[in-house]
């Protein structure tokens, strides 16, 4: 009976983790990647999966390993001011700057425009964010109902779409017509989901769920979360892989002028007709609404705590909704374009802290963390400069640069230099005392 209960708990937590990571906005990246990669779609998908799901799960396990399941626990060894700045930037990225506006833009382009082409984005946005504010300020059982029933419905419909696309492909899968760096673009698409940043918040919910089910010992918690993570990873692997395959079946032509959201709608319409577009629209609407409410709530709570209550939760929720409303009208392509350089800068910092988190109790000096992050940040900044067409000597010659990971070796060098500044004193222990 005990084994049966544990298996059920792992399944429930795994599916919850899947639901948290699988936002409707994530629908748009795998198909677009598949279309661009063509015959190399599986390579692109694997890079996407590792940069998205793989790193997000590593973030969760790293925070468990550290023993402090909070944002400060992950970034604290950088120092109070840098840690606060990075955490605030994470919250702004998964909040009003990028992720929340993307939910509305995705809903408008995938659910509203295909069915009601004359609707204005500002009018839709006002209605959408009005509902977000209402539900975020006064949470009710409505959110639980949407999460419990519409997420499984979304997955069932997606699996049906994937199966139909496998049985009756839209077209032949051909090589990419233009030069396309499959691995690099897959990694960048994985960054764009922002799931690694969201995982820093999600881990608190997952740990609380495990403890509420009776797994209070660290060893038991780790075991349950690892197994639940595998459940979520397998589910996400199937769904994302299927979506990338559907995108690859459009690589022969006729879809190249579509952006990310329009491509998903076109694939759905090709496979399931106009009725499929209606089903997709309804599910995307509620899935995005739920995601927007959750992000608004968590981000407002964090900033309210950061200001020690001087800015109330309600006021912050209102500010975030209004700001998100304005940004959402830039359109999904513009939001993705804005996100790219920001995430290129932020991700290496978080990834360095995640990796070092696994060795948290063996590293005695904060300089290792600080120098590793500084070196990674400098290289990432140069990558951003190069992406705008400016010549940056030798940046492409760094190891792993072709995978947008040229910061890895400099971060290691930075960590080694930081170690040289250590005099054997446990700086971290002194600061925490």
Walk me through the structure:
The protein has 433 residues and is mainly α. The protein has 17 helices and no strands. α1 runs antiparallel to α10, α2 packs antiparallel against α3 and α2 (29-37) packs antiparallel against α9.
Brief overview, please?
It is built from 17 helices and no strands.
Question: SSE order, as H and E?
Answer: HHHHHHHHHHHHHHHHH
CATH architectural group of the largest domain: Up-down Bundle
The CATH topology of the largest domain is given as Amino acid/polyamine transporter I
- The coarse overall form would be globular
Q: Gyration radius, to the nearest Å?
A: 22 Å
Terminal Cα separation, in Å? 45 Å
Keywords:
433 residues; mainly alpha; Amino acid/polyamine transporter I; 2 domains; 17 helices; globular; disordered C terminus
Write the layout of secondary structure elements.
Blueprint: H1 2-21, H2 29-37, H3 41-66, H4 71-75, H5 80-97, H6 99-112, H7 121-137, H8 141-167, H9 182-192, H10 195-212, H11 218-248, H12 260-306, H13 313-328, H14 332-357, H15 366-387, H16 408-420, H17 427-432
Helix pairs in contact: 1-10, 1-11, 2-3, 2-9, 2-11, 3-9, 3-10, 3-11, 3-14, 5-12, 5-14, 6-7, 6-12, 6-13, 7-12, 7-13, 8-11, 8-12, 12-13, 14-15, 15-16
């Amino acid at each position: 009976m005990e084994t049966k209960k544990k298996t059920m708990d792992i399944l429930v937590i795994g599916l919850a983790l899947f639901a948290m990571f699988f936002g409707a906005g994530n629908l748009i990246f795998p198909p677009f990647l598949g279309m661009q990669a063509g015959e190399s779609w599986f390579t692109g998908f694997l890079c996407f999966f590792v940069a998205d799901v793989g790193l997000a799960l590593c973030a969760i396990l790293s925070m468990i390993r550290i023993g402090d399941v909070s944002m400060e626990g992950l970034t604290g060894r950088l120092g109070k001011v840098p840690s606060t700045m990075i955490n605030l930037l994470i919250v702004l990225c998964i909040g009003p700057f990028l992720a929340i506006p993307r939910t509305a833009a995705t809903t408008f382009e995938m659910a509203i425009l295909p069915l009601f082409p004359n609707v204005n984005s500002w009018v839709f946005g006002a209605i959408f964010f009005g509902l977000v504010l209402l539900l975020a300020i006064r949470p009710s059982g409505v959110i639980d109902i949407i999460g419990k029933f519409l997420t499984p419905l979304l997955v069932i419909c997606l699996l049906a779409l994937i199966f139909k696309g496998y049985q009756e492909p839209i077209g032949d899968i051909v090589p990419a017509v233009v030069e396309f760096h499959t691995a690099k673009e897959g990694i960048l698409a994985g960054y764009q989901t922002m799931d690694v940043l969201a995982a820093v918040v999600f881990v608190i919910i997952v740990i609380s769920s495990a403890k509420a089910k009776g797994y209070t010992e660290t060893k038991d918690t780790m075991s349950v979360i690892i197994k639940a993570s595998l459940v979520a990873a397998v589910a996400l692997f199937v769904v994302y892989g299927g979506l990338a395959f559907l995108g690859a079946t459009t690589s022969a032509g006729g879809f190249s002028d579509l952006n990310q959201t329009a491509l998903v709608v076109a694939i759905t319409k090709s496979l399931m007709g106009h009725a499929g577009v209606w089903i997709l629209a309804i599910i995307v609407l509620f899935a995005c609404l739920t995601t927007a409410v959750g992000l608004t709530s968590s981000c407002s709570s964090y900033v309210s705590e950061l200001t020690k209550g001087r800015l109330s939760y309600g006021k912050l929720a209102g500010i975030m909704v209004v700001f998100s409303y304005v940004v959402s009208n830039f359109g999904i392509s513009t939001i993705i374009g804005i996100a790219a350089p920001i995430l290129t800068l932020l991700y290496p910092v978080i990834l360095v802290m995640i990796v070092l988190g696994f060795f948290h109790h063996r590293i005695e000096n904060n300089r290792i963390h600080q120098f590793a992050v500084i070196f990674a940040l400098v290289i990432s900044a140069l990558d951003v400069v190069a992406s705008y067409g400016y010549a940056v000597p030798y940046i492409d010659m760094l190891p792993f640069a072709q995978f947008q990971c040229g910061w890895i070796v400099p971060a290691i060098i930075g960590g080694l230099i930081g170690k040289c500044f250590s005099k054997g004193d446990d700086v971290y222990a002194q600061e925490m005392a």
